Amino acid sequence: MSRRGNFATILSIATVAVALSVSARTAVAGDNNPTADQILKALAPKPLTRGLSAGPQVDPAKVAAESAFVKKIRNRATRSLSSDEREEIATMAQDKPNIDLEINFDYDSADINARSMPSVQALGKALTNPDLKGSTFVVAGYTDAAGSEAYNQELSERRADSIKHYLVDKFGIASGDLVTVGYGKTRLKDPDRPMAEANRRVKVVNMETKQTAPQ
């Protein structure tokens, strides 16, 4: 093969390598910063049926109890929630539409890091969508395992509050529609790597349940 042919082959390989590298970085960025549409789909309530044999069934007593509890925690200060109330929120959230967002904060601070702002803004756009109007959302803060339990509990609460204040101030979301709660380092997403960034996250949960009438 001529030198010109060798050079063309090397150039082609280099071009493909650069393209793959760019594609990989784009995929990672997309995962770390979900779009408003992706958040909207994740938080859309799943309708339950009542009195039908097919599909998830509604337990009226459970729905009533959950509704009463959600009403109870609305407009509450983050630090006013008891440990029992935090646990009840976590239990309810297991069956509700939710999304984990990788929201980074400045070191030892509740200030939102600039690289996480696209995720917070996408969240704000999603929560203003008419499809989510009238829902109550839990904004739960989590930390990694560094530091004491008491310190991380307080830090996770401040970080959840920081997200709430941004959404209220910048997107006009009603304060009562956002319930903030902190879990510190008690619920690590990646317990095998307690210091991993994946543990420093914010989870948003739609606490509403839509019901459909019998057909």
Notable characteristics:
single chain; 215 residues; alpha/beta; four-stranded mixed β-sheet; two-stranded parallel ribbon; 45% helix; globular
Task: Describe how the helices and strands are arranged.
Blueprint: H1 3-32, H2 36-43, E1 48-49, H3 60-73, H4 83-93, E2 98-101, H5 117-127, E3 137-141, H6 149-171, E4 178-182, E5 202-206, E6 211-212
Parallel strand pairs: 1-6, 3-4
Antiparallel strand pairs: 2-5, 3-5
Helix pairs in contact: 2-5, 5-6
Binned strand content: 5-15%
Average pLDDT across residues? 81
User: Could you tell me the number of beta strands?
Assistant: 6
The largest sheet is: 4 strands, mixed
The 3D shape can be described as globular
Residue windows where pLDDT falls under 50 for at least 5 positions: 7-30
Helical stretch count?
Answer: 6
Structural class: alpha/beta
Q: Which radius of gyration do the C-alpha atoms yield?
A: 22 Å
Residues in helices, as a percent range: 40-55%
Distance between the termini: 74 Å
Helix and strand sequence? HHEHHEHEHEEE
Please list the strands of the largest sheet in the order they lie side by side: 2-5-3-4
Question: Can you put this structure into words, describing what you see?
Answer:
The structure is a single chain. The protein is an alpha/beta fold and about 220 residues long. It contains 6 helices and 6 strands; from the N terminus they run H-H-E-H-H-E-H-E-H-E-E-E. The strands form 2 sheets. It has a 4-stranded mixed β-sheet with strand order 2-5-3-4, with helices on both faces. It has a two-stranded parallel ribbon with strand order 1-6. It is globular and about 45 Å long. Residues about 5-30 have low confidence and may be disordered.
